[in-house]
Amino acid sequence: MPMEENIAPDGDESPDAVPVPRSLLPQLSEIAILLDIDGTLLDLAPTPREVWVPPGLAKTLDRLHRRTSGALAMVSGRSLNDIDLIFAPEQFPAVGGHGAEMRVTADSEAVATHAPPMDKELKRRLAAIAKLSPGILLEDKGYSLALHYRLAPHAERAIYEAVSLIRADLPNAPIEVLPGKCVCEIKHSGFTKATGVRELMTHEPFKGRRPLFIGDDVTDESVFAIMPDLGGLAFSVGRRAKGVAGHFDEPSDVRAWLRHLLDDEDAVMEPFSNLA
């Protein structure tokens, strides 16, 4: 279950959390459910290709997708193609590539969100960093490049130093470095998960609904930050992120809570507008 809490300043201890009252759970007809994948819906794995969709999760997501009239979307750093492979044969609306691409409905075509591809020469130089140590895995997402070091944690400092040297050599390159959980990702600076979510929320069936976003990583903080602007709520996973309504301890708690939303759909709940 998510936890209510008074978010403490960085470095301070947060008070013990208590369960969110049932009266604060929104009606599914009024919200848009937005979900990060790795570390939020799914447990982290040694490599990106090893993530595992637990039995029953796809069914839960499909039911929520139908009960929200299609207003459920994945919001991920993964490409849309990668997202579809993970959840196949199910397909969901999604914001992929940290906001670089989007699919508004499950059966619509993916569209780019005005995100320019990364310069080929820059990508080549960044890709060479993977040669620093065995165990560094290179992932080319098209609009970004990720260097995973879960299998080579000792290489973290060397990776970031190498990226810094390239940035210093190309000070005008419009790139952004996203530190994550055992991953260093480099992308074009013109888009984020937040820009993707803002765009998504202008389209039906998301338009006019209040978003409920759940994420776990630093890359999700831009979405946490815009939830008040959209009248929505944000929850973090694994840590008490600043500015969120509450947190989950681990992805299994997120999955259980999503099932709980379905179980409680017919219960008498206060209007979501009471949260404003």
Word description of this protein:
This protein has 276 residues and is α/β, with parallel strands linked by helices. The chain has 2 domains: 23-114 and 191-275, HAD superfamily/HAD-like (Rossmann fold), CATH 3.40.50; 120-188, Alpha-Beta Plaits (2-Layer Sandwich), CATH 3.30.70. Helix content is 25%, strand content 20%. It has 7 helices and 14 strands. The chain has helices spanning 57-67, 80-87, 120-127, 156-169, 193-200, 221-226, 251-263; strands spanning 3-4, 18-19, 31-35, 72-75, 94-96, 101-103, 111-112, 137-140, 144-148, 175-180, 183-188, 210-215, 233-237, 246-248. The chain has a 10-stranded mixed β-sheet with strand order 2-1-14-13-12-3-4-5-6-7, with helices on both faces. A 4-stranded antiparallel β-sheet has the order 8-9-11-10, with helices on one face. Helix 2 (80-87) links the parallel strand 4 (72-75) and strand 5. The longest helix is centred in the middle third of the chain and has 14 residues, at 156-169. The protein starts with a strand and ends in a 13-residue tail after the last helix.
Number of strands: 14
| SS strand fraction | 15-25%
Class based on secondary structure composition and strand pairing: alpha/beta
The CA-CA distance between the termini, in Å, is: 21 Å
- What's the helical proportion of residues? 10-25%
Looking at the structure, the CATH topology of the largest domain is: Rossmann fold
The best one-word shape is globular
Q: How many strands, which pairing sense, and closed or not: the largest β-sheet? A: 10 strands, mixed
The H-and-E topology, N to C, reads as: EEEHEHEEEHEEHEEHEHEEH
Low-confidence stretches: 3-24, 266-276
Rg calc: 19 Å
State the strand order across the main sheet: 2-1-14-13-12-3-4-5-6-7
**CATH architecture label name of the largest domain:** 3-Layer(aba) Sandwich
Count of helical regions: 7
Number of domains: 2
Provide the CATH superfamily of the largest domain: HAD superfamily/HAD-like
Mean pLDDT: 86
Identify the CATH class of the largest domain: Alpha Beta
